Amino acid sequence: MIDIRGLSKSLAGKKVLDGLSLHIDKGVTCTIIGRSGCGKSVLLKHIVGILKPDQGEVIVDGKNVGRLNDKDLAALRMELGLVFQGGALFDSMTVAENVGFGLIEHDNISQKELLERIEESLSLVGLCGIGNLMPAELSGGMKKRVSLARALCIRPKLILYDEPTTGVDPITADSINDLIRSLHDRLNVTSIVVTHDMTSAYKVSDRIAMLYQGKIIFEGTPDEVKENDHGVVHQFVRGLAHGPITETLESGHRICP
Amino acid sequence: MTRFFFIYFGRRVRTFLYFLGGIANLSFQTVYLSFVPPFKKERVIEQIKKSGYDSLPIVGLVALFIGFIFALQTAYFMQRMGSEMYIASLVALALVRELGPVITALVVAGRVGAANTAELGSMQVTEQIDALEVFATNPIKYLVVPRFLALSIVLPLLTLFANAVGIFGSYLICVNKLRISSSMYLQVTSEAMLFKDLFTGLFKSIFFGMIIAIVSCYEGFNVEGGAEGVGQATTRSVVITFISIIIADCFFTAIFYFIFP
């Protein structure tokens, strides 16, 4: 489903991705873990074609995203759903208009069918009957769910989640994890979850890949991650203050104790 | 010292050229996408209401006071010369050729241009513009084209309204305070204005509308750094639009001076 080969990208003079390679099979939920600012969101933006690679290629469903023309890229994007970290709901529109946005803009479907699809997507995320509310009236967790409903409404083959549990309380975070897992089981979509929340990563993933210094340094099942003794992976998944990640940072930037 | 000066100067020139390139790119894309289907007229109508209809009170108020002030200031000199009846023609020409289009453009730039930058800037920092792209929707087609078309249509109409209200303000002063007869005022006003006076004023106001739309949207798209970035971009948008309008006005005035002497 997704094949990333030698992907490199520099932003503002800093190399964010440095020859990253990753393969994700169809129907698999793969979680990409890594520290904040390590380039996880940049990787997602390459998969949906918002950013173009400096080097390397991103193949989604057999198509090279960086080389598609506008029309083909638009067609590919209608098969993808991206759940943004902050929701990125259009705040001038109601929840229903947000959820149905993709269909309203691109599909000539009847008003009746549109309303049914909106209600179906909202019920999938457990938020029936809130179509008339504005995004400003929703809590952080609800915004993330509505954002997910918006992604689901176009019935995508691939769903990308950018930090789905960041900024919500642990109970809401767990319910979002359940939701990601149940959607995967019910709809059999391929999913990529970007997070630094290990509880979430263990719960939702079939496979976990760790991004460090612009490369994937480890990839395996959640059990393999738990048992892994690679210094960087070990430090990150256990949340240790001291280890190779912080030592590299300290030697590079001389952080004060 | 000299080295630092050249480094600083070089950076400023590079920033300016980058800005010009960005504005040119956005302008070409906006004009091109204005002719590419699908055409969603509801969005243009919504923007016409926001930028045009909702601006009527403030444009009218400013134009009315400009009319009062201009009549009184002109009267100060004309009374000394014993030529009060020329006040009407002077006010009409100044308003229709110059003050109407420029004052309207500056008011709309402050009101609508600033709002455009703040709105698009907030959408940028909250990833709403990325969300549009993910849903295969071109942000320029969706956000800039309706604003561009609306402001190009609305600004000449608002200018026409400002001209009428300004002349009415001057009329009130002249008829009530300066004892000029109503029929005399209206006759002198209509005789003074030629079609070319009205046309040149309205023609340049179309371009002022385009400048407001493009600069405000460009600044909104290029916001970085959260709420502070939105504030800075909004200030920059208003300042750049004001300067651009004045420069464009000078340019058009010179062209019209030689084409329609």
Offer a concise description of the structure:
The complex is a heterodimer of chains A (257) and B (261). Chain A has helices spanning 40-47, 70-77, 95-99, 101-106, 111-124, 140-153, 170-187, 198-204, 222-227, 231-238, 244-253, and strands spanning 2-11, 14-24, 29-33, 55-60, 63-64, 80-83, 158-162, 190-195, 207-212, 215-220.
Walk me through this protein's architecture:
Chain A is α/β, with parallel strands linked by helices. Chain A has helices at 40-47, 70-77, 95-99, 101-106, 111-124, 140-153, 170-187, 198-204, 222-227, 231-238, 244-253; strands spanning 2-11, 14-24, 29-33, 55-60, 63-64, 80-83, 158-162, 190-195, 207-212, 215-220. Chain A folds into two domains: 1-79 and 159-164 and 189-257, Rossmann fold (3-Layer(aba) Sandwich), CATH 3.40.50; 82-155, no CATH class. In chain A, a hairpin with a 2-residue loop joins strand 1 (2-11) and strand 2 (14-24). In chain A, helix 5 crosses helix 6 (140-153). The longest helix of chain A is centred in the C-terminal third of the chain and has 18 residues, at 170-187. The model of chain A is unreliable at 253-257 (pLDDT under 50). Chain B has one domain. In chain B, helix 8 (195-221) runs antiparallel to helix 9. The mean pLDDT of chain B is 91. Chain B is globular and about 65 Å long.
